[in-house]
Write a structure and sequence with these properties.
glycosyltransferase activity; transferase; alpha/beta; Starch_synth_cat_dom; glycosyltransferase; Glycosyltransferase; single chain; Rossmann fold; 556 residues; nine-stranded mixed sheet
Amino acid sequence: MNQTVWMVTFEAVPVVKVGGLAEVPTNLAVELAARGWDAVVIVPAHGELRERSAESIATLNVPGARLEVGKLEWRGVKFFIVSGGALRDAGVYAEEVLEAKVVQFAAAVGELLKNPELLGVREPSVVHFHDWHSVPALLALRRALEGGGEPALFFHIHLLVRRRLSEELLSKAGIPPDWEHEVAWGGSKRRVSVREALQLSGGAAEKLGALEAHRVVTVSHAYLSEELAPFMGSELSGKARVVYNGTSWRYSDLQKEVFEVHGRQLEVFGAAQLPNRMLLRKYFLLYALGSLPEGEPKVPDERTARKLREAAAPPLREDLRTEAFSYDGPLVITTGRVSRQKGFDLLLEAVPHVVQDLGITRFVFFILPVWGSEDLSLQLLDLSREYPDNVRVVFGQAPSVYRLAHLAADVFAAPSRREPFGIMALEAMVSGVPVVASRVGGLAETVLDIREHGYAGTGFLVSPGDPYELAEKIRDLAAFMEASATGRLDMLVEKIEDRKLRELLEEYPDSGEIIRKSCIERVETHFTWQASARMAEAVYFEALRSLGKPLSTAST
């Protein structure tokens, strides 16, 4: 293999993570490197280089800023991290600096593509841009390589936000409105100025990215047909391809990791070796949840953390750690960034209905509050105060118990209004946790509805935006899993309205365990990052062939 791929992204683990986007470029790069590619990730520091454990290797002068480039190698991938100017600001998506960050990052990418020797790497054969923040960088690259051989350019839409780009913003990144270049539109090539490209795209960043790239990539067929194709129009949708996301989680690895971290404390709960899930749940709810180590949970945005600390009241402490529960019970967890898109407000409405019907249910929210989400965060805090026996909210990152919570859980709630893919559902299923998810985007492709698939099912799909159906299916599935695990069918079956779940329990009282195994098998068979990398590689090679570029044989 002599192909080189550059990933251009606004966030990437292990450098900086806000949401699921950060997992994709890194994991694709890691698995492509394992297949023989030279893999590079270019990402802003959103802080100082020393905070990212990066070695400074170069400086760049771009309009309005002097930038510094650091290098970090991790799992076979070279990360080049850009700091300085607005890119020092820790607010990854803070609106007051976002435009400056996008501009300076775009200018930096253009300079690096003109001078790859600064990085000590080869020119890329493929450059893969992720989400709207990278669109100005895509144009800056094309401008920088004008007159030279372009690599194959891919624009990956993880979440369509319809952000507007202006001539002024692109000009600040060194992309003049009258610069003419070639684009593919409606199956044919045409020369357009940047001004004309903005007019063709209506100024929408994602449509401009689709116009400028050789291929558009998105994360599920449902998301492509439901949202992207209507948005892009027939002139551009022919460029679109699908590459599923994946997860690096494996059930056996999760068990080992959890026991390595919590083994000593678990012995207090009667476990000399890896315990069963009921014991893990009891340990998590009654002890570990209320005993987070110092520094957890971590809220990346200090302004948001300050506001939460000011509002803290039991069961939330002033240091944002939460109290443990007093009693065990079927556990429902949910995870994600606080936003209306994720549907946490719907779950907030659903919780009282579940508690009314199945009062032993415990809910734990693992949420990442971001600036601008304070109202919803405070509503969730109020919910935990109103239902202290049933609800806890972990505000921020709590790595010491995050995987433990997944192994302890009985149900995962994914009430998203929109979800292009939904890695959180994969993490739940590979942990053996069935999912109640909205029938939208990638969730509709990853979650198999038990009503249709029986024992091969991995959860329920519900109507998006309906808190009552959400509550009903969470209650049914929580009661089903508890009845199966405890054998208390006489007390719990009457709580289950879903006919299919009742039938499964009648046929096999331990059918909850069968569903857990189906969840694990589905992810480990179909949704690994290795599978995602194979899909990406196939799309790369297809584009390289169409552009007349040389190919190399992939590893198997």
